[in-house]
């Protein structure tokens, strides 16, 4: 088995067949979550169930040893009526106690060692209120455990959690209509035994937020069952439920991203892949779990090589793991018959396995300190390096089994979304630049040369790098690492590149020669004096924020502009959400006289990301708003991080980035503590 290999990104269909594989079986069950349109539907506290469950189980937030952050506040309302909704409700109920008790244990340890003022130094008013809530609940749970121990009984935690709001499932139909009930009523019964409430015939309409912009309530419309027409009908009545966490489990759609990424090899038939019979003719699978004719091929080449699909990808076997297993049992004879028609591509699998071991198991090549807060991690990952295109990114993680452990804490990092700064395809090397922000990013410094890591990707959509244009690159801090490969590709394509590189402090600048090589003119901007001194005649310098620097350049205050802003055809902005929002606002403000309205504006969105596999976990959801019509659409940022600058709702982006802010601040201190103790341990050894 090979982990961290994104099919369609790291390895394509053509790549797999070129390597010598004779058949590809797609057995990816996870699908695109259904987004429920409601007012404030992406406010802090609102998540997709797939996002919550993945963070809980795959990232490991439920483990007391984990440094993963996942904030859940009570009361919880789960939207949906399927088995995923039941799972989400029971898991959130169980997780809450784990979460607050872990928070309290780390908080008390840090306060004892550093003092309360230090621990709370970065907390906002909202953070303080949330922490007070968590600490009070954790101490109540601790007290109940102590009393139960003395009385020699099981602690009554469910009653406490219920008194704080508990967990409610809200479903738009009757309970007896719910898929969870019709498929497995025992799970529904067990959930209710644990204290889960089921509120039927309620459809969500709006999320109410508190003064901090966090979810506080959810408004739902009442429905009723009409015995005459025998269907659900809406009423004018509304119900408002308290809800500081809203988890949406409204179903999924088949994961057909591959069809959009590789239309040459993959065709779609409505919501599913196009099926074919064993002779390569288009077929229509029956939508029953035991079809008369099993049609599991989605591609059949004349030479006998083929692709098959199963589980939620297939209309006959979608819905649950039992049907998926049944589909595999019915479908494997088809695969066997297709393979029997073809002579194996390779006389032996040993050379193939050896090659895959060399090229699909990334290892750390080097870790280089660039600035006091920025580290470059160079990874040996030949196939991933060869597949890279400018603007794409990777998910970097260390393995939990190899991660250092300090006082019961595993220093296994959360997945980091990192853009490739440069690649050496001949040597199989790629560079990622990491900003140490006090969390998992700090753990990159403990990676060792030769250490196996997960480097999933490349993923995302390559940035458009047309030729014959004048392109304005605007990079802030870490965003300058992303622009290295983009600027290089633009110049190679024949475009002129004007590059504004912005930094907060003088010591934050890195890769100076590389930045100069990817731009015809660079304007070095630094928030604080004395700023930078250009080394090339065509370059400029400015002390102040980057928007002011662009305006000064356009007004001729930095000398005659080597590349006039009025000639810019396209601008690409990459940096913090605040910097990108400022540039977007300035286009209709102080930059309006200098940059043409027709110039295409692109922002690379740094939304929170988890799986980064395109339309799976939905942590990366982002709102776009049409500036003319006001219409809103929700997109998956990890599918395409480059979004129209004027359409990005930066307020929603900031809210999404702040989902776990309190826990992230405490975890940052905890990681710092672990790294200090690890350093002392290593020094002693």
CATH architecture of the largest domain: 3-Layer(bba) Sandwich
Binned, the helix content reads 25-40%
Specify Rg, calculated over alpha carbons: 27 Å
Coarse shape: globular
CATH topology of the largest domain: FAD/NAD(P)-binding domain
Domain count: the total is 4
Major beta-sheet overview: 7 strands, mixed
What does this structure look like?
With 685 residues, this protein is an alpha/beta fold. The protein has four domains: 24-30 and 253-341, no CATH class; 35-248, FAD/NAD(P)-binding domain (3-Layer(bba) Sandwich); 355-459, Elongation Factor Tu (Ef-tu), domain 3, CATH 2.40.30.10; 470-657, 3-Layer(aba) Sandwich (Rossmann fold). 31% of the residues lie in helices and 25% in strands. The protein has 17 helices and 34 strands. It has a seven-stranded mixed beta sheet with strand order 29-28-27-26-30-31-34, with helices on both faces. A six-stranded antiparallel beta sheet has the order 18-19-24-23-20-25. A five-stranded parallel beta sheet has the order 3-10-4-5-6. Strand 18 (363-371) and strand 19 form a beta hairpin. Helix 2 (49-58) crosses helix 3 (83-114), helix 3 packs across helix 5 and helix 3 (83-114) packs across helix 17 (661-684). The two termini are 35 Å apart. The model has no long low-confidence stretch (mean pLDDT 95).
Features of this protein?
685 residues; alpha/beta; FAD/NAD(P)-binding domain; Elongation Factor Tu (Ef-tu), domain 3; 4 domains; six-stranded antiparallel beta sheet; 34 strands; 31% helix; 25% strand; globular
């Amino acid at each position: 088995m090979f982990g961290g290999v994104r099919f369609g990104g790291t390895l394509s269909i053509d790549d797999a067949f070129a390597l010598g594989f004779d058949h590809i079986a797609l057995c990816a069950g996870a699908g695109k979550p259904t987004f429920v349109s409601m007012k404030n539907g992406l406010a802090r506290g609102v998540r997709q169930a797939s996002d919550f469950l993945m963070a809980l189980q795959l990232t490991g937030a439920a483990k007391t040893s984990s440094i993963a952050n996942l904030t859940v506040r009570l009361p919880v309302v789960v939207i949906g009526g399927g088995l995923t909704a039941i799972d989400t409700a029971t898991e959130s109920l169980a997780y809450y106690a784990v979460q607050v008790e872990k928070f309290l244990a780390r908080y008390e340890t840090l306060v004892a060692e550093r003092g309360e003022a230090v621990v709370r130094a970065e907390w906002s008013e909202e953070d303080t209120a949330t922490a007070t809530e968590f600490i009070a609940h954790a101490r109540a749970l601790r007290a109940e455990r102590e009393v139960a121990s003395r009385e020699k009984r099981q602690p009554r935690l469910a009653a406490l959690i219920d008194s704080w709001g508990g967990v409610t499932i809200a479903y738009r139909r009757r309970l007896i209509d719910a898929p969870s009930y019709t498929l497995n009523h025992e799970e529904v019964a067990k959930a209710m035994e644990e204290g889960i409430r089921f509120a039927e015939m309620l459809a969500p309409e709006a999320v109410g937020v508190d003064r901090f912009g966090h979810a506080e309530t959810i408004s739902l419309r009442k429905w009723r069952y009409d015995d005459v027409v025998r269907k659900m009908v809406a009423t004018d009545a509304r119900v408002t439920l308290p809800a500081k966490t809203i988890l949406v489990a409204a179903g999924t759609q088949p994961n057909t991203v591959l069809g959009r990424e590789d239309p040459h090899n993959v065709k779609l038939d409505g919501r599913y892949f196009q099926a074919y019979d064993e002779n390569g003719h288009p077929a229509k699978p029956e939508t029953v779990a035991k079809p008369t004719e099993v049609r599991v091929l989605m591609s059949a080449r004349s030479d006998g090589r083929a692709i098959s699909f199963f589980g939620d990808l297939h209309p006959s076997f979608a819905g649950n793991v039992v049907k998926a297993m049944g589909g595999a049992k019915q479908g494997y004879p088809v695969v066997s018959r297709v393979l029997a028609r073809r002579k194996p591509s390779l006389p032996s699998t040993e050379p193939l396995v050896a090659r895959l071991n060399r090229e699909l198991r990334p290892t750390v090549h080097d870790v280089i300190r660039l600035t006091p807060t920025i580290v470059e991690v160079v990874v040996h990952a030949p196939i991933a390096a060869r597949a890279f295109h400018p603007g794409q990114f990777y998910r970097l993680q260390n393995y939990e089994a190899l991660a250092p452990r300090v006082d019961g804490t595993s220093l296994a990092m959360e997945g980091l979304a990192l853009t490739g700064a440069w690649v050496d395809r001949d040597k199989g090397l790629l560079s990622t630049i990491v900003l140490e922000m006090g969390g998992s990013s700090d753990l990159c410094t403990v990676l060792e040369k030769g250490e196996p890591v997960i480097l999933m990707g490349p993923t995302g959509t390559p940035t458009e790098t047309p030729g014959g244009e004048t392109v304005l690159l605007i990079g802030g801090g870490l965003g300058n690492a992303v622009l290295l490969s983009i600027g290089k590709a633009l110049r190679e394509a024949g475009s002129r590149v004007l590059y504004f590189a912005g930094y907060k402090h003088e010591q934050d600048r890195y890769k100076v020669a590389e930045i100069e090589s990817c731009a015809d003119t660079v304007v070095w901007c630094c928030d604080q004096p004395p700023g930078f001194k250009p080394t090339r005649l065509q370059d400029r310098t400015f002390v102040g924020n980057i928007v002011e620097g662009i305006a000064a350049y356009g007004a001729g205050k930095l000398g005659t502009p080597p590349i006039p802003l009025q000639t810019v055809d396209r601008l690409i902005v990459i940096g913090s959400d605040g910097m990108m929002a400022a540039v977007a606002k300035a286009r209709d403000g102080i930059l309006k006289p200098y940059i043409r309205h027709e110039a295409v504006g692109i922002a690379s969105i740094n939304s929170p990301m988890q799986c980064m596999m395109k339309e799976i976990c939905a942590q990366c959801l982002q709102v776009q708003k049409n500036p003319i019509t006001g219409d809103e659409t929700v997109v998956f940022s990890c599918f395409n991080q480059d979004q129209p600058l004027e359409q990005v709702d930066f307020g929603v982006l900031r809210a999404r980035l702040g989902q776990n802010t309190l826990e992230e601040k405490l975890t940052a201190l905890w990681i710092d503590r672990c790294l200090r103790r690890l350093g002392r341990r290593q020094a002693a050894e």
